[in-house]
Amino acid sequence: MKEGYVNIGKRLPRIDGIVKATGEAKFAGDLSLAGMLHAKILRSPYPHARLLHIHTDKAKRLSGVRAVVTGKETVGFKAGGISATGDEPYLALDKVRFIGDAVAAVAAIDEETAEEALDLIEVEYEELPAVLDPVAAMKQEAPLIHDHAPLNISFKTDLSYGDVDKAFRECDYVREDRFETAPIRHGFIEPHAALASWDRSGRLSFWGSKQSPYFTYRNMAKALNIPLSRIRVVQPYIGGGFGGKNEMFNVDFCAALLSRKTGRPVKIVVSQEEVLFAYRQRHPTIIDLKTGLKKDGTLQAVEAHIIADGGAYLSIGALSLYLMCAFFCIPYRLPNMKAKGYRVYTNTQPSCAMRGHGVPQSRFAAEVQLDIAAKEMGLDSIDIRLKNALKPGETTPNGFKITSCGLEESIMESKRIIARWIEEKPKDGDKKKKSGIGIGCYGYVSGPRMAGHNTAGAVIKVHEDGGISLFTGSTDVGQGSDTVLSQIAAEVLGARLEDIRYGMVDSDITPLDPGTFGSRVTFITGNAVRIAAEDVRNQLAEVAANTLEANPKDIVFKDRKVYVAGSLDRSMPFSKLVKIAQYSGTGKTIIGRGYWAPEGLEVPNFETGRGNMSAAYSFGTQVAEVEADTDTGMIKVIRMAMIHDCGQPINEMLMEGQLEGSAIGGVGHTLTEEIIRKEGQTMNASLLEYRIPTTVDACRMEIYHTETRDDLGPFGAKESGEGIQVAVVPAIVNAIYDAIGVPFKRIPVTPDVVLNALKGKGQKEV
To answer: How confident is the model at residue 762 (pLDDT cuts 50, 70, 90)?
Structure first.
């Protein structure tokens, strides 16, 4: 597949690698402007309280303070993710709804003065009853967190396909279980940071740590009541996001509002502690799952009931809940399915997208239950997956159209890997340490189709010496997309990667873009880049055809040369062709444009779930081997294998880095990570106490590609890196089940949970 390519499929270094390794790369927290002020945000100490009065006079009189703002000084805009009805003010208006809710903000000459000023703000609260558990929140007698939401339900969805009741009656085996997942963090190292500056003409310039700067671009205009055209969003380097930096937050709004009030640039960098207790989390869930199969292992029906803890505000929770329910239909053939979901308000920090966006929770339940069922039915867990695997050309009951699909191949490869691992196991080991192997499968989107703007754009300018500038509206949040998009442009134009200069997002210059989420950049923006590069190539081919006396269709661009197909002697350097185009006659600047979005997709209805949300789906299988210490309860992941259907890899080295990072993130989700709260207060709001995986937790990894090549993807590429995390958690949990004979239905699986299971405390299934 890679034969003949100069850039595609090659293990090329990242174009931002040197500046990041040397510290030259500037992140939002590194930026500084002349006359800049520093700001801090005052946060609620109560999980639920009415705001009676905020006294700011003492803070305003403190030497060095330049401004104090509260919700009363805003236009009252409320954000709500993709919802038309927002519920989250950037500064509290009438009451606070979780510990950490933003109440006021201060701008001062330095951070120390701003911190001191926060202590001088006096807030009169009327404490209200708080509800911290989603099940309790849905009871009639529970206090309402938002008056518009009876039973504290922020969103609900009800999916139904086929005749589920009839299918269950005809099943040979039916199983019902309850699964639970804990609240966890995104774990990015760079905290939220924002820098805003108003100029004298009334234009706002904004720099922030944002995955999707255009979300901020639009909400900033609404929240400040100014035209979009008067806002410029410039994107610095990003220190990780994983879904936690998609939205506009109070840190962004307060920097802008304080800058407008003071007439000076204002920067806010929140602490890592604030990130951990006052910003977003992955949805904790309770999933009641019922699955029915024929005696040969054919899946017949699934019925799910999901309660997702959404925290204090809606955020983008409607999409989260839809995905949790919809992805019971993939990656296996499932003729009958019902899924009811409720996203519930609680007085905790809001939940939002996190790598895999809701899908890891539901697929954890489905994959673990499938292993339990296979064991009880006397079937092989691999064979049962192979029997039900979706194939190219099939359509799921909710409308997902499967085009390219390497799921079967990935499952077969996992079988060979497991057989080899079993052969490699030492025959005589520590009898107190039990080893086990488990698998999990997944399917994931290559960019979701939702209402609103979904098109990616790209602009390419060719310089007179043959150098190439590439601009898109997509943000590289660490995954290496700037490099991948540059490789696509270079391949089309017959250039080398080092010939491409990638321009970072600047809303005054770069094309409009939805943002970096849902694994959309390589697939969707990559196609826009391809089209823009083809536009440039077509313009230059006309010039080359005149010069070389050939048909434009016969002009070949390759390895910095341009020649006539079949006549290598009729050629010239790419740089010479550009000069001819720009210097001859009236001359012209070579600029190419490309815009792309998958056509013909049905935007999913979040309540019914029907619709095809992606033009292509990635698939794969995860294999994990664990060691369980029966004395300590410690679980160690020994090795993992990822068999990934990503179409044609654009850059194998970067893709492998994404897969490895996703897998280690899944280890934390399974074994160590959980937000611990007491009466609404986060008790482990530091990276010392909140245990994200480190290099000590890393293990051996094997990575395999099925390379199915997608007809619609740029050079055949599909999603890579995010989807695999969906399968990591169940693969590890199933490996623990294989090791000690106990299936675990709640994560994380911590040592005390393992010991309790081994000692026979509580239920056998945990």
So the answer is: very low
State whether the Cα torsion 501-504-508-511 is positive or negative: positive
Q: Which CATH architecture has domain 281-449+603-758?
A: 2-Layer Sandwich (3.30)
Q: What is the pLDDT of residues 426-444, one digit of tens each?
A: 877 777 899 999 999 999 9
| pTM (predicted TM-score) | 0.96
DSSP category for residue 391: -
Q: Could you give the C-alpha distances from 284 to 132, 311, 663, 674, in angstroms and in order? A: 12, 9, 20, 10
Same fold, 17-24+455-596 and 281-449+603-758: yes
CA 51, 310, 215 angle in degrees (round to 5)? 85
- Those residues with Cβ within 8 angstroms of residue 385's Cβ, 6 or more apart along the chain or in another chain: 332, 370, 411, 439, 441, 621
CA distances from 34 to 109, 294, 486 (A): 12, 71, 34
Q: Where are the domains of the chain?
A: 17-24+455-596, 31-128+190-239+245-278, 281-449+603-758
Res. 1 pLDDT band, cuts 50 70 90: very low
Other CB atoms within a 10 A radius of the CB of residue 19 amount to 13
Task: State the Cα–Cα distance between residues 236 and 477, nearest whole angstrom.
Answer: 10
Going by CATH, does the domain composed of 17-24+455-596 fall within 3.40.50.2000? no
Question: Could you report the per-residue pLDDT of 618-658, keeping only the tens digit for each?
Answer: 999 999 999 999 999 999 999 999 999 999 999 999 999 99
pLDDT digits (tens, 9 = 90+) for 351-395: 999 999 999 999 999 999 999 999 999 999 999 999 999 999 999
**CATH of the domain spanning 31-128+190-239+245-278:** 3.90.1170.50
Asked if 116 and 62 touch (Cβ cutoff 8 Å), the reply is yes
Q: Which two tokens mark 295? A: 């005696």
